[in-house]
Design a protein that fits this description.
This protein is an alpha/beta fold and 446 residues long. It contains 14 helices and 19 strands. A hairpin with a 5-residue loop joins strand 15 and strand 16. Helix 1 packs across helix 4 and helix 5 crosses helix 6. It is globular.
Length: 446
């Protein structure tokens, strides 16, 4: 049975349209309470980003949790990894984050975290989906057990403290001129606070959220403003987060974007140099560039791949003893500190290396030569084109053309009606030819 609520990263969609309604949030809160804390009497950490609908969705969650005898602990506007951290550190039954990540304000979503601060598996989400359909049919807490919500003060500063501690005592960013783009989102307070604690000279943009401007022309998916500011300020580096700050994009002093693969390569190199890289390498998804794998191989390290989604990366890391993993899009997990993608934590790692090296960001943050790679997003209406035999045949032809000299990754987005087609190869012409075959086939049926 096809999922009706959960996608690749929680629940997400247009506000006040199914599945992203207050009814869905209420059902999820009740179903999660019955699934994870059926006896009641426990706390649940609830955070949100800055979009206008956040408080509305939060209120539905709070109502559902309270009705089941669980105490909602509201921690306010914080990055998603702060919810994961505080769920783990406070012994909560689970954590809930209200966010649509990099999407615009018209969308919202819900992310869940276990008491260990990790995202739930597909199997658990399927169990929750089934429980959500019957949420209004079961029993609720008796009147005297109905819980009273509370607000946690200092949650954001507590998260900042953990991130700053992670880069070690004596860390000093006072020699760096940094432009910070907070996407008018969840990092607009915590990221400047963290960098100022470490002495950085800051220019901050995207730090004036109004509920409607999250990810609007700023942030990790719209880096034009950051690039311009880096050049205008003659900054050493620029850092952009997305709306919930679980990912980052780096811009060097020349105004060039540095993707998550390069950032992961940089962090892997540094951890390996210090003898702190566990698992003999790192974990990434099928979207990460072949060049990263070749670079790590030269260091005697491995790159293990999962399907797209930082929760799949995290699952593989925990199962196989890795402490570094992430996605090309900038979700990076440093599991010695955080259990999920954490843009601020990754940024501090990069900035620490840059400060210690005394070199330019354009040198430090480019550790390997990428193989030619291109991603094309194709919007479709109606049925999934990938289900058609003629599309499947064309994709098989493209894969055969690449052989061992490249890769083709074609997948349906879990959050939007998009087919994502990615091709890469050791030779540009081969990549373009295979990509053309795949794109033409999907577009003809979109």
């Amino acid at each position: 049975m096809a999922r009706q609520f959960f996608g690749t990263d929680g629940i997400r969609g247009r506000v006040n349209r199914r599945p992203m309604t207050v009814e869905t949030a209420l059902r999820l809160a009740i179903a999660a309470a019955r699934t994870f804390a059926p006896e009641g009497g426990r706390e649940v950490v609830v955070g949100r980003d800055t979009r206008r609908s956040g408080e509305m969705i939060e209120a539905a969650l709070v109502s559902g949790l309270s009705s089941m005898g669980l105490t909602p602990v509201r921690i306010g506007v914080v990055p998603t990894p702060a919810v994961a951290l505080l769920a783990r550190e406070t012994g909560a039954a689970f954590g809930l984050m209200v966010t649509a990540s990099h999407n615009k304000y018209e969308d919202n979503g819900l992310k869940l975290f276990s008491p260990e601060g990790v995202k739930f598996t597909d199997e658990v989400e399927e169990t929750l989906e089934a429980a959500m359909f019957d949420a209004f049919e079961g029993a609720y807490a008796v009147p005297e057990a109905v819980a009273v919500p509370r607000d946690m003060t200092g949650a954001a500063s507590r998260y900042v403290g953990r991130c700053v501690e992670a880069i070690g005592k004596g860390a000093d960013l006072s020699g760096l001129n940094i432009v910070l783009d907070c996407a008018n989102g969840a990092a607009y307070q915590v990221a400047p606070e963290a960098l100022r604690r470490l002495g950085a000279q800051l220019t901050v943009i995207g730090d004036r959220p109004d509920g409607l401007n999250i990810n609007a022309g700023v942030g990790s998916t719209a880096t034009g403003a950051l690039k311009a500011a880096v050049l205008d300020q003659r900054a050493d580096i620029g850092i952009a987060f997305d709306g919930d700050a679980d990912r980052l994009i780096v811009v060097d002093e020349l105004g060039h974007e540095v993707d998550g693969d390069q950032v992961m390569g940089l962090i892997a190199t540094e951890l390996h140099r210090k003898g702190r890289l566990r698992g003999g390498g790192m974990v990434a998804t099928v979207m990460s560039n072949m060049g990263l794998a070749e670079y790590l191989k030269d260091l005697g390290l491995t790159l293990e791949r999962t399907k797209v989604g930082d929760r799949y990366v995290g699952e593989h890391m925990r199962a196989h003893g890795f402490n570094l993993g992430g996605e090309q899009s900038g979700h990076i997990i440093l599991s010695d500190v955080s259990t999920t993608g954490d843009g601020l934590l990754a940024a501090l790692q990069v900035l620490s290396v840059l400060a210690q090296s005394g070199e330019k960001a354009s040198t430090v943050a480019r550790v390997f030569t990428p193989a030619p790679q291109k991603l094309v997003n194709i919007r479709y209406n109606g049925a999934n084109p990938l289900d058609l035999p003629r599309v499947a045949a064309a994709l098989a032809e493209a894969e055969a053309l690449l052989g061992s000299q490249g890769r083709l990754v074609v997948r349906k987005s879990g959050t939007e009606p998009l087919i994502r087609v990615m091709a890469e190869a050791l030779e540009e012409g081969l990549m373009q030819k295979a990509l053309g075959i795949a794109v033409d086939a999907v577009q003809s049926e979109a």
